[in-house]
Design a protein that fits this description.
61 residues; alpha/beta; Rossmann fold; three-stranded parallel sheet; 3 strands
Length: 61
């Protein structure tokens, strides 16, 4: 299983999220955005984090 994080949740980020649902070997693990407060209501299946937390998450593998 390959873990995938989306950085930015505009048109492209939404499309990637939909495409990941059709792939058996890819798994969405987080969404990074500048506006996490608004998206936490829309995205409930994975953590929604601020983009400034991105460098901390990449070290977790």
């Amino acid at each position: 299983m390959i873990n995938v994080a989306i950085v930015g949740y505009g048109n492209l980020g939404r499309g990637v999220k939909r495409a990941l649902k059709n792939s058996a070997d890819l798994q969405l693990t987080a969404v990074f955005t500048r506006r996490p407060e608004q998206l936490k209501k829309e995205i409930t299946e994975v953590p929604v984090l601020r983009t400034d937390k991105f460098s901390l998450a990449k070290d977790k593998g």
